[in-house]
């Protein structure tokens, strides 16, 4: 077994944390601390880590699971998993969530990097990327801007693409031991939702010895309004403690001591972003939550209807001629929660570091698109509608014409 395969197997079996849940339930909001909460969809068992695929089918079937209790705060509109236990989650080099093998996604990050470079005149400055993953975005941002970059992530691996002059990576967290760093821009993308105490995390960053009053922070998180409004339900995964609305993201930053410079949505409204500088804390007050409350109250029924409809879709097809396209959190969630989806032939993903692995829970194999060439494929279920055009193009090049459905 290779070292990478061994790490993946260990992550599936142990998840670098306790093997058993304590059964604790959070009764106060992660952002504002209020206890005026509304419960929604409950999952008794979701894989702990959707993005730590398993080396073999046996370890995939033995992968640990956790309870997910969707909870809505009527005070600040934050959504969170009241059953989340941070000590059960551990991120190692086996954690693989890079989307940079998709041309559609690369176009998105190129545009983002160009905007940040232009807005904050980053040439010759220093960028710190917290939770940089495999380093793809930091490399692109540094190349485009001419800035020096330092990436922090315990899942970073060497030999992932070409080195970029002036960019280095550290397998660690950005703590006080790196007080010598003076970043002009702090980037943190798709990380805050994993943190059990997001406001404490933001306060700790603000208090870092290297942070000055002019330091700019850029954060990006999933947009829970997309989940609720557009039924992007496959993003409900155990490793996400939080699901931010624009209001709760703003509240988290202001409470932690930041002044918001800009905020909005991106990537087809699937993401929220916020840009901020250190300032005096401004404690969160209640907001008008009625519109989002209605979405939450309707969500459980709409969720069950969608799961039932997709279960029926699979039941009417040959599972060995059906594949799911997308081996990230969406695809892993799909095969674990939709009835009959555990019998489908494979999950397809363009990321070569996912190929040859197995989905935690169902042990569904993850294959390259080329594995479909010459094979009988009746239906492809696309996990993210933003990739449909890209997937259709790849399938055409492979020389077959299956039905393509968006989950």
Please provide a written account of the structure.
By secondary structure, this protein is α/β, with parallel strands linked by helices. It folds into three domains: 3-93, no CATH class; 103-278, Vaccinia Virus protein VP39 (Rossmann fold); 296-406, NAD(P)-binding Rossmann-like Domain (Rossmann fold). Helix content is 29%, strand content 21%. It contains ten helices and 16 strands. The chain has helices at 3-14, 57-61, 103-119, 136-145, 198-206, 224-229, 246-256, 290-315, 329-337, 388-398, and strands at residues 37-47, 65-73, 79-81, 126-130, 148-152, 167-170, 185-189, 216-222, 242-243, 258-266, 271-278, 322-325, 346-348, 366-367, 379-382, 403-406. The strands form three sheets. It has a seven-stranded mixed β-sheet with strand order 6-5-4-7-8-11-10, sandwiched between helices. Strands 14-13-12-15-16 form a five-stranded parallel β-sheet, with helices on both faces. It has a four-stranded antiparallel β-sheet with strand order 1-2-3-9, with helices on one face. The radius of gyration is 21 Å and the shape is globular. The model is unreliable at 1-11 and 13-18 (pLDDT under 50). Residues 315-394 form the C-methyltransferase domain. GO terms for molecular function: methyltransferase activity. InterPro entries: MeTrfase_14, SAM-dependent_MTases_sf. It comes from Mesorhizobium prunaredense. This is Putative sugar nucleotide processing enzyme,similar to NDP-hexose methyltransferase protein.
